[in-house]
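Lab notebook: predicted structure, single chain.

Context: the supervisor wants predicted structures on file for every construct in the current expression panel, including those that have not yet been purified. This is the next one on the list. No modifications to the sequence; it matches the entry in the shared construct table.
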Amino acid sequence: MKILFKTIALLVTTAFLSIQISCEKNVTKPVETLYSGICKTDTMGNVIEDDINDWQPRFSSTDTNPGPFRVFPAYPNPVTLREDSLLTILVFNFILPEKAFVTITINDSLGHVINNKILNNTSMSIGRYKVSWNLKNDSGKPVQEGIYRLFINAVTDDSTYQSYGDIKVKKIN
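Prediction complete. Output recorded below exactly as produced.
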C-alpha cells in the first residue's frame, strides 16, 4: 500500500496554517457496503427469517396520535433476476393512516440512488397499497446482483413517516 502525502498551506489572516492530507493509493481491500442483512420472505410475503432493522416504521409528528403507518417486508427476498424473463418483480406493501405524499427510493449498496421513479412525491389517500419494482434502474436497465435498500417516505400536513428494508438481488442466466 502506498500513501501519498500532500501539504496544503492556507493563508489565515496573517498566519499560515498547514494541513496534512493523506490519500491511499493501490488499496486492495474491497469496498465496504452500507447495508447488510435482509428480511427473508417467500413468494407470498411470509417471513422466513427476520432482520429487526428492516421494515420498521419510523415517524416524526406534531400529532399526538399519528395512526398506524405500516410497512411489510418486500417479497420474494432474496429475489432472483433472470435475464431471459420480463416477469421478475419484487412486491412491497404499506398502509397509510392519512393522505400523504409518498416517495419510494432504491439505493445500491454504496448509497447511490438507482431508482426513484416508482413513486416520487405522489399524492396518495388513506389505504393499503401494493407496489412492485421490476428490478430495473432509472435508465430501464436491470440492476446488478447485490444488496439494495428500499426507502419509503410519506409526508402529511403534520407527520413524516419513514421506513426502509434491504433487498438481495441474485442473478441467474
